Amino acid sequence: MLSSSGVQTWGGDVVSVSAPTPWLARRLFPLLATAGLIAIGMASTIWWGPHLVGKSDWSLPDDLWGTLVAARRLLHLDLGGLYTRPTALVTFPGAAVILVPVVAIIDAAGLSLRAAGASNPHPGAWLLAGPYEIALSAVALFAADAIAERLGVARPKRAVLAAAGAVALWSVSVRWGHPEDAVAVGLLLFGILALSDSKVGRSAWLIGAAVAVQPLILLALPVVLVVIEPRRLAGFLTRAAAPGAVLLGAAAAANWNATFKAVTSQPNSPAVDHPTAWTSLAPHVGNGAVAAGPARALSILVACGCALVVGRRWRAVRQTAPWSPEALQDLLWWAAVALALRSVFEPVMVAYYLWPVLAVALITASRSWSRLVATSLAAATLTLVSQISWRGPWSWWAPMVAGLGLTLFLARVPLNKRGVARSVQATPPLDPAQSQGSHESLGRVS
Which CA distances in Å does 80 have to 3, 159, 250, 440? Predict the structure, then answer.
């Protein structure tokens, strides 16, 4: 029991528990990292970035503007236009949903959503959309810090984790303008954290929301499912499927042909982005583009193989809660491996596809200084090198996949299945009064 004096009794022994820390102080590092990323991101896109390359136009993420148009159509209830030009939307509608608030403000300000170009070198909408989408992407930093706190990571290491996470996040948010990827990974992490505290229903809704925003989360879903008790799987899957099914069903009902074509084929151009060893095997859909959808389905099948490995390790763990730090680390590492399969099998790659693996691997490495520093350096290097415009599959794609493998190796914490089970069973149950929710830490126990 936890007494009002801040001590807990367990098996007749008395242990002290620190008083709850204010949220602002506990999440100080991701807050500072977010503020720094917004400041650097905006300065690099509208000030010194263009100056360095001798341009007068702002250096803005091209991909964001089509999603903003989709969000505007959603705001005006034009569901039939979500997957028609010029949105270029190929993910689930949740990617547009998360941008509706800023589009409403842009509309109220009377600003255009026309992309930057010779006739529109300084689009005013970016001054609103930029800080918003970067801050929105930072949900992944807060999720990482919450998990690190749950793992018992000391504050100096959490500061490094936040800084390294922000460096890696630059690619997906500032450089490419895909906040949906970061939001989806952040929701997945919060979902895994909820699951580690036996909040299965909350976990299902969080992971379902993640899939509705960006279905790349389906790669990690098989790994998550094997740690859930079989009797709870049906309810979990029902909840997890609901957000995406509702959004996608509404879009399909409004314009079936456009929705089905965009979501199932997911075209990408090897002439614009990076071809891989699988490009020649992918179905061609016209205008030089290839369909990425079939390869992504293959990645999910391979992810199911990863789940089988995880399932064997976790048979003794399913009945025990809460998870130990070692068990949570183990599942996170396998989730990172599953997310890496997208880059392994993708017919056409873009630099920001690497980011989800880097984000999760950094958390896995956060309990050890040596692993955290090595993984941070690998993630930062891979983030920067991936922006190179080389087009050859063996000059760009192969080194990127090798870099992901190295990052996962550096972040790996060796732990056999007996170690997982023993460490979980050795962890005493939590008193509900200790916890401030599934995303909060127990505090220091001495």
Answer: 57, 45, 9, 41
Confidence class for position 414, pLDDT limits 50, 70, 90:
low
Chain centroid to Cα 325, Å, comes to 20
Q: What is the pTM of this model?
A: 0.88
Instruction: Please name the amino acid found at residue 125.
Output: A
For residue 41, the model assigns a pLDDT of: 95
Q: Which two tokens stand for residue 226?
A: 């094997």
For residue 49, count other CB atoms closer than 10 A to its CB: 18
Residue in the structure block whose two tokens are 């390359």? 53
- Give yes or no for residue 95 having a pLDDT over 50: yes
Say how far apart CA 428 and CA 406 lie, in whole Å: 35
Q: Which residues contact 212 (CB under 8 A, 6 or more apart)?
A: 92, 93, 94, 97, 243, 244, 246, 247, 248
Residue 424's pLDDT band (boundaries 50, 70, 90)? very low
pLDDT, tens digit (0-9, with 9 covering 90-100), for 38-58: 999 999 999 877 777 667 789
The single-letter code of the amino acid at 351 is: A
For residue 156, say if its preceding peptide bond is cis, omega within 30 degrees of 0. Answer: no
Q: What's the sign of the alpha-carbon dihedral 276, 244, 250, 179?
A: negative
Q: Which of 16-25, 59-68, 406-415 has the lowest mean pLDDT?
A: 16-25
Residues in CB range of 181: below 8 A, 6 or more apart: 172, 214, 216, 352, 355, 356
Residue whose C-alpha is closest to residue 330's, from 168, 192, 165: 192
Q: 206-260: per-residue pLDDT in tens?
A: 999 999 999 999 999 999 999 898 899 999 999 999 999 999 999 999 999 999 9
Q: What percent of the chain has pLDDT over 70?
A: 86
Assign 137 to helix, strand or coil.
Answer: helix
Q: Are 274 and 347 in contact (CB under 8 A)?
A: no
As a whole number of angstroms, the distance between CA 346 and CA 282 comes to 9
Query: Looking at residue 214, what DSSP letter applies?
Result: -
Type of residue at 282: A
Answer positive or negative: Cα dihedral of 361, 366, 369, 373: positive
CA distance 70 to 178: 13
Rounded CA separation 108/121 (Å): 22
Non-local (6+) Cβ contacts of 379 within 8 A are: 164, 167, 168, 358, 361, 362, 407
Secondary structure E strands in 289-400: 289-291, 348-349
